[in-house]
């Protein structure tokens, strides 16, 4: 069997250097509202920045709730659309932000990367889009959806 | 996202993580329908194969398959077929019956019967015609968590392609597959510290999956032990702290990361068999790559 290539990586160097921070905006609130309720003719803001009633003409077709879960290093903006019976119609992530407060353009950090096959230089920052690695938990979003259902779901039923 | 933008990205909480679908095409009428259908197929795989949902195929099998043949969905059957094939070719290192160990470690809910740890379980799973399954050994419990997420990604890619989408990427919390003529740039987290990246690769019509210590950014940036169990010792793996596998399908990539976590370099022949390549980081801070690990810019010594 052909040997695996190997080299030592220093964790000491890593600890003193910054990691990337990045954000992804998937949808604005208005875009998410339209996607959740394509038939709606208007969205009536019932709680400022938080809850909108979706209406098709005079008919109520559901509610749209904006929420944010905040953790130590991570913010997720998401929206829950409920149907008129208070059931979850759709959950959509609006914005995802990983903020480690790192200095993204740290050249010392970047220079640790070597092009094994001579690819384009590494561009950290907004370029970082697809990450494979330790899995992010969606636990807090799931908890948030449950909270929203407890608060608003019953009102609709 | 807006009209005039040349790509669309959406994300939803599914499979216990954030699942993101990116399409490298301008918004058009059928695109939202295609994305909706892709998210729906992922949710369906979750409903069928979750250990946690009482009416999933997995839960029904765990309750009833010891009593007689149980009919399941063809897609669950297909995942079981792949799992058992990998079990054979990995010298039993890939094992979907370590659920009782995970229960003992409280990584899965439920009480574990210590007797269940003893059997050679995968040999006791009988795949029968007409998508029926029976357990010969009444003690076993299965958990498809080792490859169902990858399968869900593959299904989503297929649904997008069936809708005429030509370029895109489905990323289920780091298990991902890209398709289309253009390469996708993927960054790989440092398994020792998830705030950092150790490698950047370009993938084209290929899947990537990673395993490592669990990462919960809400509680701590530091990592805890790996949720991978070595069936030969019934203990969590310790030597390899993180593994990333590139493979033709995400189901294979997902499953093979578990074998690489357990076997390290001796997983080489198995990787070659499935046209896969791998990168690992071990507890002694050594990074290893298979000779065919392509197109990477990785952290230097």
Task: Give a short summary of the structure.
With 157 residues, chain A is of the alpha+beta class.
Strand order of the largest sheet of chain A: 2-7-6-5-4-3
Name the structural class of chain A. Answer: alpha+beta
Q: How much helix, percentage-wise, in residues of chain A? A: 10-25%
Radius of gyration of chain A: 22 Å
The profile of the biggest β sheet of chain A is:
6 strands, antiparallel
Shape-level CATH architecture of the domain at 183-298 in chain B: Roll
Strand order of the largest sheet of chain B: 1-2-6-7-10-13-14-15
Tally the helices of chain B. Answer: 7
Mean pLDDT of chain A equals 72
- Bulk shape of chain A: elongated
Describe this structure in words.
The complex is a heterodimer of chains A (157) and B (301). Chain A has 157 residues and is of the alpha+beta class. Chain A has one domain (19-113, 135-156). In chain A, 22% of the residues lie in helices and 37% in strands. Chain A is built from four helices and nine strands. In chain A, strand 6 and strand 7 (88-98) form a beta hairpin. Mean pLDDT of chain A is 72; it is low at 11-20 and 100-128. With 301 residues, chain B is an alpha+beta fold. Chain B has seven helices and 16 strands. In chain B, a hairpin with a 2-residue loop joins strand 6 and strand 7 (175-179). The termini of chain B are far apart. Residues 215-225 of chain B have low confidence and may be disordered. Chains A and B meet through strand 1, helix 1, strand 6, strand 7 and strand 8 of A and strand 1, strand 2, strand 7, strand 8 and strand 9 of B.
């Amino acid at each position: 069997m052909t040997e695996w290539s190997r080299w030592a990586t220093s964790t000491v160097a890593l600890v003193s250097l910054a990691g990337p921070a990045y954000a992804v905006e998937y949808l604005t609130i208005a875009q998410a509202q339209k996607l959740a309720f394509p038939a709606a003719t208007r969205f009536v803001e019932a709680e400022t920045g938080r809850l909108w009633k979706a209406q098709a003409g005079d008919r109520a077709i559901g509610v749209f709730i904006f929420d944010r879960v905040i953790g130590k290093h991570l913010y997720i903006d998401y929206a829950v659309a409920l149907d008129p019976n208070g059931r979850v119609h759709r959950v959509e992530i609006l914005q995802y932000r990983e903020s480690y407060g790192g200095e993204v353009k740290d050249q010392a950090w970047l220079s640790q990367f070597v092009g094994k096959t001579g690819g384009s230089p590494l561009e950290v920052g907004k370029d970082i889009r697809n990450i494979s690695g330790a899995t992010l938990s969606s636990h807090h979003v799931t908890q948030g959806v449950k909270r929203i259902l407890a608060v608003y779901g019953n009102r609709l039923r | 996202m807006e009209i005039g933008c040349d790509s669309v990205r959406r994300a939803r909480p599914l499979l216990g993580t954030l699942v993101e679908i990116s399409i490298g095409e301008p918004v058009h009428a059928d695109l939202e329908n295609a994305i909706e259908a892709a998210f729906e197929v992922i949710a369906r795989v979750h409903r069928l194969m979750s250990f946690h949902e009482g009416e999933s195929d997995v839960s029904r099998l765990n309750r009833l398959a010891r009593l007689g043949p149980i009919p399941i969905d063809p897609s669950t059957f297909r995942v079981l077929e792949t799992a058992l094939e990998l079990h054979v070719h990995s010298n039993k290192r890939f094992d979907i019956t370590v659920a009782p160990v995970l229960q003992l470690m409280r990584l899965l809910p439920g009480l574990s019967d210590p007797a269940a740890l003893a059997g050679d379980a995968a040999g006791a799973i009988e795949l029968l015609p007409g998508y029926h399954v029976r357990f010969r050994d009444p003690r076993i419990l299965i958990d498809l968590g080792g490859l169902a997420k990858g399968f869900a990604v593959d299904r989503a890619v297929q649904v997008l392609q069936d809708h005429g989408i030509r370029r895109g990427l489905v990323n289920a919390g780091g298990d991902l597959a890209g398709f289309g003529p253009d390469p996708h740039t993927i960054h790989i987290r440092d398994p020792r510290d998830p705030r950092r990246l150790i490698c950047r690769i370009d993938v084209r019509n290929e899947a990537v999956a990673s395993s490592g210590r669990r990462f919960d950014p809400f509680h701590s940036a530091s990592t805890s032990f790996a949720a991978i169990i070595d069936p030969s010792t019934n203990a969590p793996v310790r030597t390899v702290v993180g593994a990333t596998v590139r493979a033709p399908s995400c189901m294979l990539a997902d499953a093979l990361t578990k074998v690489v976590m357990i076997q390290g370099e001796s997983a080489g022949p198995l990787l070659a068999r499935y046209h896969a390549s791998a990168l690992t980081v071990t507890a002694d801070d050594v990074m290893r790559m298979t000779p065919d690990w392509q197109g990477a810019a990785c952290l230097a010594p």
